[in-house]
Amino acid sequence: MVEHVIEIDGVSLSFGGVPVLENISLAVERGDFLAVLGPNGGGKSTLLKIILGLIKPNEGSVRVLGSSAGEAGGRIGYLPQHTHVSGSFPISVLDAVRMGMIRPGLRRIAGFGGGRDEVDRARRALERVDMLEHERRALAALSGGQMQRVFIARAVVDNPELLLLDEPTASVDSASRNSLFRLLAQLNKEMTVIMVSHDISSLASGVKSVACVNRTLHFHKAPELTGEMFKMGYGGEGEPCCPVELVTHGDVPHRVLGRHQDEDGS
Amino acid sequence: MDILHFEFMRNALMAGLLASLICGIIGTLVVVNRIVFISGGIAHASYGGVGLAFFLGLPVLPVTTAFTLCAALTMALVTLRARERADTVIGVIWAAGMALGIILLDLTPGYNVDLMSYLFGSILAVPRSDLWIMAGLACVVTGLVLTFYRGFLVMGFDEEFARSRGVPVDMLYFLLISMVGLSVVMIIRVVGLILVIALLTIPPFIAERRTRSLGSMMLLSTLLSGFFSVSGLALSYLADITSGASIIAVASVCFFISFLLPQKQA
Lengths: 266, 266
Description:
The complex is a heterodimer.
Chain A: E1 4-15, E2 18-29, E3 33-37, H1 44-52, E4 59-64, E5 67-68, E6 76-79, H2 93-98, H3 116-128, H4 144-156, E7 162-166, H5 174-187, E8 192-197, E9 209-214, E10 216-220, H6 227-234
Parallel strand pairs in A: 3-8, 3-9, 6-7, 7-8
Antiparallel strand pairs in A: 1-2, 1-4, 4-5, 9-10
Chain B: H1 7-32, H2 36-56, H3 60-81, H4 86-107, H5 115-120, H6 128-147, H7 149-157, H8 159-164, H9 169-191, H10 193-208, H11 214-239, H12 243-258
């Protein structure tokens, strides 16, 4: 039997009478690498926050790792959207990663945190994201892409079963974006990964299934680009509009995949 | 050091140093959690408690403490429940508290309290009993912050991440606001509410740019506050000017000079 790490059933949410999500249902299998695509303001990040238990839906049920949403905090790794860290918060790279080992409950917020063992684990996480050489630097002195990798290290340092990423490719240049995706594909061997993005090119490598969210949710078992996704991502009216204007010679992995059965050809 | 022959001068020095310790620790948390505005609101609203105490003919300290804690917790509740307009509500409570204080003092027969002494304090007239209360508060604040240091660190750095890991952020937030309320009440009688806000914000701001951890930021803030208090007192003695204002003057000048001095390196 397939084990589901996330079971969302009939979830609806509205803010001040405006519906944000309508009757969403989603089951994510253990080991999946799910990309959640959709336009800005379509409710992707909200869905992620519902899974985390940060926002309570008006209707429907959410089960995460066998518990109610918000109760499995110690087993989930989370990368918030361009983390609203003040540019001057006094913290070193190593200490920022160590925060990822905080656990739910009163006793866990007491004191100053574990000793050597915690430092060793934080170092290993930094090594994974190729940032170990920067461990002593001030976090605020890093570039956007470097900071993003430190926050990924923070998300995975506690070996979570489920990794949730909100726009991981924002503020990252295209070269480090590819290495980021390689890293995520590698992490996916150990944990279920869910990645929210408004960027269709993030469908690139490693992604195993796709959910399109724009108030409603469509689940695709395979990482295929459809006209519908382009329309959602780039807001084309009627005709699906492709952002790639020209394809020329060379090795660019530009893939165009088949049309869906349930989609009436446009 | 013949200036220290006077008991009122020794008391003033002690009061300044105790206020520096409390403000160094709490001010650091106020600055990194971006609750300077709510702290200003708490400080001003406490004036309503002073008026209430005189009007009812009850002891000032307990009544002001209770009143301030109620106002502070109301503001905290509003901040958590209705984020978008929280600043407006805080502004209203801020003004309403002050107005209530002034009206109640007007209605109190035969008593004419000097508003200026609550704005700038009367550090040269601190009785010994107040020093003991401040020392007790300093122990409580230091103890609580050390006990939950890790929780405060994670909350101040990235509140959303802290929530996702199951850290009881709301509880820590109420605890922090309560400590701000208590500190403000104890210190206001001594140094005035304007000096409280100056000591809560200026030293942590200078320290944040020159330290690598929250703990060292608290330490440096305390040392800076102590320096401002001592040199401000000396200045007020030598130049025969109001002590509270002269402490703030020293702090403000250092605040602007700090922009010219080197900040921390990567």
